[in-house]
Amino acid sequence: MRRCMIVVSGLVHGVGFRSFASKIARELGLKGFVQNLPSGKVSIVVEGYETYINKLIDALKKGPPLSAVDNVETKWSDPKNEFGGFEIKI
After folding, report:
1. Distances (CA, A) of 18 to 1, 2, 12, 22, 70
2. In the prediction, which pLDDT does 57 show?
3. Whose CA, among 44, 53, 64, 77, lies 20 to 30 Å from 23?
4. C-alpha span between 59 and 26 (Å, rounded)
């Protein structure tokens, strides 16, 4: 199990990006959250098997149809096991 903090930049607000990320994370059985940042970026904190986190990252690089992803930054660490599921934070 691993933990990854992901920051996605580009046209990612107002295009359904959080719902997109949440749907994929849940399908992959990952736990954590996604939220918009005041900077215009989206932050995702996720825990689960590294293989599935990498699948999420690949999907985030493409994004939903109306988005335009410029960059995906990742920071890996050990899991804290603090999440019961995956949620969208406002």
Report:
1. 23, 21, 8, 6, 16
2. 98
3. 77
4. 13
Say which amino acid occupies 19.
Answer: S
- H and E: helices and strands count for the chain: 2, 5
CB neighbourhood size of 10 (10 A)? 17
Please give the model's pTM, rounded to 2 decimal places.
0.96
CA distance 25 to 86: 7
Q: Name residues whose C-beta falls within 8 Å of residue 49's C-beta, 6 or more positions apart in sequence.
A: 1, 2
How many residues are there in the chain? 90
Task: Give the whole-angstrom CA distance, residue 73 versus residue 43.
Answer: 10
Give catalytic residues, as residue numbers.
18, 36
* pLDDT score at 90: 84
Using alpha carbons only, give the angle 70, 72, 73 rounded to the nearest 5 degrees: 135
